[in-house]
């Protein structure tokens, strides 16, 4: 799965940005930041509702917010495909995952740069997606941290027969995507590498070509 991140697109033209990748992307990654969980402010539920009406692409909503228990179900009800919240922000990840699934969404758990994955490995059957940050959450355009792929390897080892997507987010580009795939990731977020390119659709094709068997 390739999920271009709108964080690197023109925020005044989000529908156009979705349209630019609609023939190539698997998911559209939407970075929701509340200037509290991370020191950056992006977009919220009203924009996600509008995007849902503007594109047929499945919306991969990455909630970098405090108190996801309060807000995340609204994204599921708005028709988001994946609703991914941060482990660091939630004291009942299993309860919230069940609520999201009950609301018709896939449930995702995100692990930020400084958080070990081990405490969460037992919870993976409750989730559809595990998002391993390969940077510190908050901003696009940061350098990929290869050491964080150890978390992908650890999760892939225990995932076994689970239908679990392991998604990587941060610094994914032509020079890093293969290492992430080798570690066991099968969903790739790319912001700068897609929307910073002259031709976003061609950038996705190039990334896909590097990881498709
Ligand atoms: C950052 C976001 C990422 C961001 C990645 O916290 O979660 O999705 O868009 O941007 P790049 O691909 O530029 O690292
Ligand atoms: Zn993201």
UniProtKB/TrEMBL annotation:
<dbReference type="GO" id="GO:0019323">
    <property type="term" value="P:pentose catabolic process"/>
</dbReference>
<dbReference type="InterPro" id="IPR026019">
    <property type="entry name" value="Ribul_P_3_epim"/>
</dbReference>
<feature type="binding site">
    <location>
        <begin position="169"/>
        <end position="171"/>
    </location>
    <ligand>
        <name>substrate</name>
    </ligand>
</feature>
<comment type="pathway">
    <text>Carbohydrate degradation.</text>
</comment>
<feature type="binding site">
    <location>
        <position position="31"/>
    </location>
    <ligand>
        <name>a divalent metal cation</name>
    </ligand>
</feature>
<feature type="binding site">
    <location>
        <begin position="191"/>
        <end position="192"/>
    </location>
    <ligand>
        <name>substrate</name>
    </ligand>
</feature>
<keyword id="KW-0119">Carbohydrate metabolism</keyword>
<feature type="active site" description="Proton donor">
    <location>
        <position position="169"/>
    </location>
</feature>
<keyword id="KW-0170">Cobalt</keyword>
<protein>
    <recommendedName>
        <fullName>Ribulose-phosphate 3-epimerase</fullName>
        <ecNumber>5.1.3.1</ecNumber>
    </recommendedName>
</protein>
<comment type="similarity">
    <text>Belongs to the ribulose-phosphate 3-epimerase family.</text>
</comment>
<keyword id="KW-0464">Manganese</keyword>
<dbReference type="GO" id="GO:0046872">
    <property type="term" value="F:metal ion binding"/>
</dbReference>
<feature type="binding site">
    <location>
        <position position="62"/>
    </location>
    <ligand>
        <name>a divalent metal cation</name>
    </ligand>
</feature>
<keyword id="KW-0479">Metal-binding</keyword>
<feature type="binding site">
    <location>
        <position position="5"/>
    </location>
    <ligand>
        <name>substrate</name>
    </ligand>
</feature>
<dbReference type="GO" id="GO:0006098">
    <property type="term" value="P:pentose-phosphate shunt"/>
</dbReference>
<feature type="binding site">
    <location>
        <position position="29"/>
    </location>
    <ligand>
        <name>a divalent metal cation</name>
    </ligand>
</feature>
<dbReference type="InterPro" id="IPR013785">
    <property type="entry name" value="Aldolase_TIM"/>
</dbReference>
<feature type="binding site">
    <location>
        <begin position="138"/>
        <end position="141"/>
    </location>
    <ligand>
        <name>substrate</name>
    </ligand>
</feature>
<comment type="function">
    <text>Catalyzes the reversible epimerization of D-ribulose 5-phosphate to D-xylulose 5-phosphate.</text>
</comment>
<keyword id="KW-0862">Zinc</keyword>
<dbReference type="GO" id="GO:0005737">
    <property type="term" value="C:cytoplasm"/>
</dbReference>
<feature type="binding site">
    <location>
        <position position="171"/>
    </location>
    <ligand>
        <name>substrate</name>
    </ligand>
</feature>
<feature type="active site" description="Proton acceptor">
    <location>
        <position position="31"/>
    </location>
</feature>
<feature type="binding site">
    <location>
        <position position="169"/>
    </location>
    <ligand>
        <name>a divalent metal cation</name>
    </ligand>
</feature>
<dbReference type="Pfam" id="PF00834">
    <property type="entry name" value="Ribul_P_3_epim"/>
</dbReference>
<dbReference type="InterPro" id="IPR011060">
    <property type="entry name" value="RibuloseP-bd_barrel"/>
</dbReference>
<dbReference type="InterPro" id="IPR000056">
    <property type="entry name" value="Ribul_P_3_epim-like"/>
</dbReference>
<feature type="binding site">
    <location>
        <position position="62"/>
    </location>
    <ligand>
        <name>substrate</name>
    </ligand>
</feature>
<keyword id="KW-0413">Isomerase</keyword>
<dbReference type="GO" id="GO:0004750">
    <property type="term" value="F:D-ribulose-phosphate 3-epimerase activity"/>
</dbReference>
């Amino acid at each position: 799965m390739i999920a271009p991140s709108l964080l690197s697109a023109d925020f005044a033209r989000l529908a156009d940005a979705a349209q630019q990748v609609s023939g190539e992307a698997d998911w559209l990654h939407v970075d929701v930041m509340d200037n509290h969980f991370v020191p950056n402010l992006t977009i919220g539920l009203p924009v996600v509702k509008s995007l849902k009406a503007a594109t047929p692409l499945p919306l991969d909503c990455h909630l970098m917010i405090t108190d996801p228990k309060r807000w995340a179900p609204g994204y599921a009800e708005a028709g988001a495909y994946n609703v991914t919240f941060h482990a660091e922000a939630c004291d009942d990840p299993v309860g919230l995952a069940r609520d999201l699934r009950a609301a018709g969404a896939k449930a995702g758990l995100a692990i930020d740069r400084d958080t070990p994955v081990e405490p969460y490995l037992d919870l993976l059957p409750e989730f559809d997606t595990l998002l391993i940050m390969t940077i510190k959450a908050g901003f696009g355009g940061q350098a990929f941290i290869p050491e964080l792929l150890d978390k992908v390897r650890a999760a892939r080892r225990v995932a076994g027969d689970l239908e679990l997507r392991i998604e990587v987010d941060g610094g994914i580009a032509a020079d890093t995507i293969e290492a992430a795939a080798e570690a066991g990731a099968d969903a790739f977020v790319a912001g700068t590498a897609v929307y910073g390119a002259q031709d976003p659709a061609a950038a996705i094709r190039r990334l896909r070509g590097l990881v498709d068997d």
